[in-house]
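sorry for the late reply, my laptop died twice this morning and i had to redo everyting from scratch. anyway the thing you sent over, i finally got around to it. pasting the sequence first so we're on the same page, its 40 residues, then the predicted structure underneath. double check i copied it right bc i was rushing
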Amino acid sequence: MKKLFILALVVVGGLAAWRKVQAQRADLDLWSEATTADDY
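ok and here's the structure:
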């Protein structure tokens, strides 16, 4: 039972880290788009 609990914690921690990385990538993409000079 203890192994299952530890596995669940690892999975939840991994999911939280993945979501944080995705959010940071989205912010970086948005920032890059906002600061790119458009040649019109």
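The radius of gyration is 18 Å.
thats about all i looked at so far, will dig more tmrw
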